[in-house]
Amino acid sequence: MAAMPPPKLLFVTGKLAEFALRRQLAELAPRVGFDYQVAVLPITVVALAPMTWIARHLTVPPGIDRVVLPGLCPGEPDVIAERFGVAAERGPADLRDLPEFFGSAGRRPADYGAYDIQILAEINHAPRLTRAEILAQARRYRAAGADVIDLGCEPGECWGGVADAVKMLRDEGLRVSIDSFEVGEIAAAVAAGAELVLSVNHSNLAAARDWGCEVVVVPDVPRTLQGLDHLVETLAFWNVSFRIDPILEPIGFGLAASLGRYLEVRQRYPTAAMMMGIGNLTELTDVDSAGVNVMLLGFCQEVGIRSVLTTEVINWCRSCVQELDLARRLVYHAWTHRELPKHLEPNLVLLRDPKLRVHGEEARRQLAERLTDRNFRLFAEQGQLYVCNRNMFLKGTDPFALFAEMSRREAIDPAHAFYLGYEMAKAVTALTLGKNYEQDQPLRWGFLTRPAVGHGPRQSPGDSDA
């Protein structure tokens, strides 16, 4: 059987990116297996042009199987497909990501996203909140990925409104647990629909027989497993469902030993359900929570701890639920596929970018030589800020000094000055943290990334020299 001919692709670009695109395709096409042509449209940066404008200015040669458009072009590729009768798709936002776009590197496997760890999100000091505040926080937790809403009660007090709060959340379609040792408070919550009690030790064990729901078993004495065996045996004899939490300790107060207790419990009870309350580490450590959450869920995944309790009290933990939702998918894939948890979940890389793209000064100078308009292009890499247009090529580390030189060479109106200041602030932030900077695009902050705000002066797609 004759081999199928390679597909013929047409890559659409603007005048500035033509050289870099051709260089990338010359290396990529033989390796991936496609033939290509490049359509250079009469615009400096084609990413600024909507699909309708591209359709008016594009010519598709005969024999083309697919048109590949820059990823940032506004509009839908269907406009191109319908006009020319050929398949069209949006490529990556940056042409340097074409290898990942055409290959497997950097792409998630088709089965990525499964998990088996349940997230309980605690509403702390729930009795102090109004019903509206409780409902709003519960809805936010659910949207972030929580499976169960945990109502955290006040130690030593009995919350008279606990049943109403539980019923309100159940009416909202939410699953609810109650975090209390008070027997009367727990009984009211369970009667209203709470499905899990946190927690049970010998102080309230007798009542657990009548609640008719699952409970979390904790040792009588923290930092030990004292009383645990008797608690487990008693609950099992009563046919009360339970999960065991040996209690995680903060750094400096027995963290390593507490992790050892989780391992010991797993050895004692190979098939028992287990839970970990992770707030003792995330809330009580001066560090952004995402990395800690990933590490703890990796431990849970390997040990068979299938539920975690989190809080979002201190500011650096304000997104713990969503971090855990992403992390549980990452660690599940790593564990079940025996694959390193790397290049799978970029949304958890928040402070720095997964990979820095570097063109180099010579490439920047070559680009500047091809500019034919006065619009400023800003770049940031390898500790340097670059500013160029048809009249200048500047580089430096001080944005104030660069702007002073720009103003000396050309008049800059206030609106454009504000825009340039905003972009330079982004560029300096990127250099400081080790992130990629792209003019007019938001800095990437993983799942915390927000859409770009409205910008000031921008080039017009209708101006071929824009």
Please describe what this structure looks like.
The protein is of the alpha/beta class and 466 residues long. It has three domains: 95 residues, Rossmann fold, CATH 3.40.50; 225 residues, Dihydropteroate synthase-like (TIM Barrel), CATH 3.20.20.20; 73 residues, no CATH class. It has an eight-stranded parallel β-barrel, surrounded by six helices. The chain has a four-stranded parallel beta sheet with strand order 2-1-3-4. A hairpin with a 2-residue loop joins strand 13 and strand 14. Helix 6 packs parallel to helix 7 and helix 12 crosses helix 13. It is elongated and about 80 Å long. The C terminus is likely disordered.
In a few lines, what is going on in this structure?
The chain contains 16 helices and 15 strands.
Which tags fit this structure?
alpha/beta; Rossmann fold; TIM Barrel; 3 domains; 16 helices; 38% helix; disordered C terminus
